[in-house]
Amino acid sequence: MGISVCCSSSFWLNMNPKQQCRFAKISGNQKRGDDLKITGNFRKAQTQSTRSICCKLQGTDFEERTSPAEVKREIEKCYEFIERLGRGVVYLGSARLGTEHPHFVRSFELAKGIASLLDATTWSGAGPGLMDAVTKGALEAGKPVGGFKIGKEAGQWTATDVHPYLPLDSYLTCRFFSARKHGLVDAGVRAVSSDRTAFVALPGGIGTLDEVFEVSALIQLERIGSMLPVPFLVMNYDSFYSKLLGFIDDCEGWGTVSKGEVASLWRVCNTNAEALAYLAEYYGLPDTEGYTSISELGEDNGIVSSSSKIDVQ
Predict the structure, then answer these.
(1) Residue 75 domain-assigned (yes or no)
(2) Which parts of the chain are beta strand (E)?
(3) Backbone angles phi, psi at 32, to 5 degrees
(4) How many domains are contained in the chain?
(5) What CA–CA distance (Å, rounded) separates 33 from 24?
(6) Rounded to the nearest 5°, which phi and psi values hold at 252?
(7) N-terminal to C-terminal alpha carbon distance within the chain
(8) Which of 39-43, 74-78, 190-194 has the highest mean pLDDT?
(9) Does residue 59 share a domain with residue 138?
(10) Which pLDDT does position 2 carry in this prediction?
(11) Does residue 3 sit within a domain?
(12) Do residues 59 and 73 both lie within one domain?
């Protein structure tokens, strides 16, 4: 992710010595990488023409962002990528939950069922965890997948631009989070009535919550960019989101949101069967066609079916 950094003298003086930034100043044909000192000339140096700022914090390298044009070009690539693969169902979820976690199994079966039901492209962050689960579920259903990958996901020790098994033409590695977010939102909008799209929030952490509230705010303010309404499902597996939903109810009491305002933005589902039934009704499709029992959705009264098998290779 590209980060533009601007330091004031007070910021510099308050930094931990291990977090001191090294600024490389390029002016004309002169290149100097000397550490800038906090002197009376600091403001003068700060206002001089500077093409690049490279900052290292505790050994972490941040890519320079030399101009807004770079972000714009990457957003355009995201839009072109979506046009090629087609809009569909966008999944938001944790990168940390592995194949042994019950939510991985449920997410796999959910994506498999929705891909078959809506016959649409399955979109995700093309990362590990529940993003991997929905990718595998859609592939199991024989449906197309697309992803907007970022170099390093939460919980990963190493960064890589390459997905372990998806072909290169089915995902786009983004440098900038802003471009990635544009892509994930645009992949779920409905341009025509024949588009069958949705946003699905699976259990997740800070990144997932960021995306969930961004999408809900865009829907609330009618800035999602969709010509037609788009269903937004919150998968409340094992009451994962119940406390958050309770907090939103408290916000209604405080007057920071209107009564029923947030509840109108999404549909909370406790099971995969509930989610599939809702989408089938929403799009006027046969209810969960192709499934003979609830156990095939990876659930049995809220418990993951032991018969659910996933190829994790």
Answers:
(1) yes
(2) 25-27, 30-32, 56-57, 60-61, 88-92, 121-124, 145-150, 171-174, 198-201, 232-235, 267-269
(3) -135, 130
(4) 2
(5) 4
(6) -65, -40
(7) 29
(8) 74-78
(9) no
(10) 42
(11) no
(12) no
Give Cα separations from 26 to 33, 48, 68 (angstroms). Answer: 9, 10, 19
Place of tokens 């199994």: 105
User: Residue 40 is part of which domain span?
Assistant: 9-66
pLDDT higher than threshold 50 for residue 18: no
Distance between CA 147 and CA 50 in Å, rounded?
Answer: 35
Residues 119 and 255 in one domain: yes
* In a shared domain, residues 86 and 235: yes
Both 186 and 93 in one domain: the answer is: yes
Residue position matching structure tokens 């960064």: 159
Determine the Cα–Cα distance for residues 162 and 154; give it in Å rounded to an integer.
16
Contact 126, 149 (CB under 8 A): yes
Q: What is the pLDDT of residues 91-121, one digit of tens each?
A: 999 999 999 999 999 999 999 999 999 999 9
CATH number assigned to the domain comprising residue 255:
3.40.50.450
Q: What's the CA gap between 13 and 17, in Å, rounded?
A: 9
- Kindly state whether residues 120 and 26 are assigned to the same domain: no
Measured CA angle at 161 (ends 157, 166), to 5 deg: 110
